[in-house]
Amino acid sequence: MRAPTLLILAAGMGSRYGGDKQIDGFGPNQETILEYSVYDAIRSGFGKVVFIVRAEILEEAKAIFIPKFGEKIAVDFVIQSLDSMVPEAYLDPARKKPYGTAHALLCAREVIKEPFAVINADDFYGEEAFRMLARFLGSAVGPQLHCMVGYAIKNVLSPYGTVSRGVCESTSEGFLTGMIERTAIARNEEGIFHDDGKEKIQIPPDNPVSMNCWGFHPAVFAQTEKLWSSFLAENQGNLKSEFYIPKVVNSLIEEGIAQIKILEGGKIWFGVTYSEDRDYVVAALKKLHAEGVYPEKLW
Q1: Which residue ranges make up each domain of the chain?
Q2: How far, rounded to the nearest angstrom, does the alpha carbon of residue 192 sit from its chain's CA centroid?
Q3: 5-290 has CATH 3.90.280.10 classification
Q4: What is the gyration radius of the CA atoms in the chain, in angstroms?
Q5: Pairing of the two strands 48-53 and 5-9
Q6: For 97-141, what is each residue's pLDDT tens digit?
């Protein structure tokens, strides 16, 4: 079987952070967060990395990343734009908001023919997550069996504001049965709660959540495309609608098309949701270098 591919979603606007955090430096040598994911993917056996980017940052992304690791792993870039994969009948010049993560996934269909992982550019997932993904994608994955790396919700919060997370439900055997996107999640002295002003729900601290760390067989593209056509028809004129990977995953489960195995590789995570998160991420990466988890220089 061919080595798996890593698909990095780097086309987000970064509105809450206040800039292009996908290409901002956080490591001791100004490494971006996604460089650690690529480094971990290479040493876990991935053979290619594909970046989903906006046209505005394409050339800058190429200039940053190709010289660093272009000789160590195959690299490709795909543009996600408001007209990507959108039939002319559904194009709306008034739309400004990107179509979301499942749309980004679909944009990569022509350049990925092998099992692949999907991650966010601005999240640090840890080496174990990539080792678990590489192992699963190299052996167990199939048209009816995909995976995700699960993270305990207590480990994926921000002290500087609320976050949105895909809260998971699963079987005793570790298969995902459903996922609900919860917004406005935060920790207080009483526990961890989703409280959006309409409902308040307490979430157990060890409950697994999705951090958009997935492993798929390429069969998922055809299934996603069918849902994409339905999504466009149902949301025509809705300028804020988004097509998310959890919607695809839930559909696969509900229709009995495929199972999703929850992998236990989610031991460490940090990310930059708010600009205040930056100092913590910089310190955490510095510590990992000092402990020898990463070399003095990645490249």
Answers
A1: 5-290
A2: 23
A3: no
A4: 18
A5: parallel
A6: 889 999 999 999 999 999 999 999 989 999 999 999 999 999 999
